[in-house]
Amino acid sequence: MYGLSTFLLAIHFVYRYVLICRPNHRYLFSSFECKVAWVALTLVWGLIYFSINFFLFAPSERYHNFARAAVLSRANYDIDELGFFCVFIYEVIDGETIIYISYCVGLCVMMVMMLSTFLVMICCGVQIIRALERISLSNKTRNLQHQLLRALIVQATIPFIFSYLPRFLMFAFVIKGSSKNAFTAFVPYTIALYTFLDPIAIIIFIPTLRKKIFDFKRCREVVSAVSRTKLDFSLRY
């Protein structure tokens, strides 16, 4: 889910970029063939991310032996009974450093995927800001575009703080060999928190959408009140 969510967010930035900066290329998101290509690309991206975690980051017998005592002493769990994935890139045995290639390959590919999505968001965001300052739009359209842009910027900032940065730090601690760092225990919580904060940012920074939501809520309250009134009337008569 993490890999797909960041990729979809990057596609959202590309869509806004095409809509504002390259309107002649709207067919990239409107034609049937391009839609199929985007869906296929998204599925392939998610499959690559899943394969890295399932195959390359799968815990090996070497890692079980390496972490068995630490897990038992700190968490009082038998590591053989736990389901998890790990990034076990090297081990020092009798002063000799043994590097495990599969974990290194998985780590490098995942870092490239993370960096590529974030760079796409940054590049598209900068181009959109420049285009909005340059092109002539009606006040209503420009206001809506600025609302969407602010929401996109916040949508990029939130995953950077709560997802990209924690994961980069976690991988940095892994490469450094700092296995006792307590920070890594909070990474799953920060990643889960960003998926909760992301839609809230859209509601806060797009007044038009916020107004529609509140109008819908008031409409439901009115319908509910009318239904109760009809029920009371029918019970009386």
From TrEMBL:
Biological process (GO), any one: olfactory behavior
A matching Pfam family: 7TM_GPCR_Str
Compartments, record wording: Membrane
GO molecular function: G protein-coupled olfactory receptor activity
Gene3D superfamilies recorded: Rhodopsin 7-helix transmembrane proteins
Domain of life, source organism: Eukaryota
Transmembrane domains' residue ranges: 36-56, 99-128, 148-166, 186-209
Occurrences of domain G-protein coupled receptors family 1 profile (ranges): 1-202
One cellular component term from this protein's GO annotations in UniProt: plasma membrane
Keywords, sorted A to Z: Membrane, Receptor, Transmembrane, Transmembrane helix
InterPro entries per record: 7TM_GPCR_serpentine_rcpt_Str, GPCR_Rhodpsn_7TM
PANTHER family: 7-TRANSMEMBRANE DOMAIN RECEPTOR C.ELEGANS, SEVEN TM RECEPTOR
Protein name: 7TM chemoreceptor
Species assigned in the record: Ancylostoma caninum (Dog hookworm)
Lineage: Eukaryota, Metazoa, Ecdysozoa, Nematoda, Chromadorea
